[in-house]
Design a protein that fits this description.
7 helices, about 150 residues, single chain, globular, 3 strands, mainly alpha, about 50% helix
Length: about 150
């Protein structure tokens, strides 16, 4: 079972003391989604990712949080329910703990891995290219290392 993209985003923001930008939020969510897929074969969130110029992006989350620009994302997730304890929350907490305070450049370097799912689907002349969950899962299996 998946969780709402906004519930997952809200939890990531909470775990990072509401100090992360939209770019950082996108990268952390993608990595938590990858961990969940890689370990269980099941997606974390209810919406997919696209290959954009800025790396993997979850479009509905991007549009909700873009008003903050490069500033920390505020609570625009008022109607989002909590993420209940279990494998979904575990993936979110693990990525948050592992990468808390990581520079945006480091997060970009991780998600723009030239052998990863984003690189396989990114084309500068196309917008909104979906990144299939199967490729995200394969990226996890290909890495099998900590970020």
């Amino acid at each position: 079972m998946t969780v709402s993209v906004f519930s997952a985003a809200k939890r990531l923001c909470e775990l990072n003391d509401w100090s992360i930008s939209n770019l950082e939020l996108q990268k952390l969510l993608y990595l938590a989604h990858m961990v969940r897929l890689g370990r269980t074969g099941a997606p974390l969130i209810d919406g997919g990712f696209e290959a954009s110029n800025y790396g993997p992006v979850q479009p509905s989350l991007y549009h909700r949080a873009k008003v903050f620009g490069s500033d920390p994302v505020g609570n625009v997730f008022h109607t989002a329910g909590p993420v209940v304890p279990g494998q979904d929350l575990d993936a979110i907490q693990e990525i948050s703990e592992q990468l808390k305070g990581a520079a945006p450049g480091k997060l970009v370097a991780i998600t723009h891995w030239e052998q990863g799912a984003w690189a396989k689907h990114y084309h500068p002349s196309y917008r909104g290219m979906p990144i299939p969950n199967e490729d995200i899962q394969q990226e996890y299996l290909d890495r099998m290392v900590s970020f």
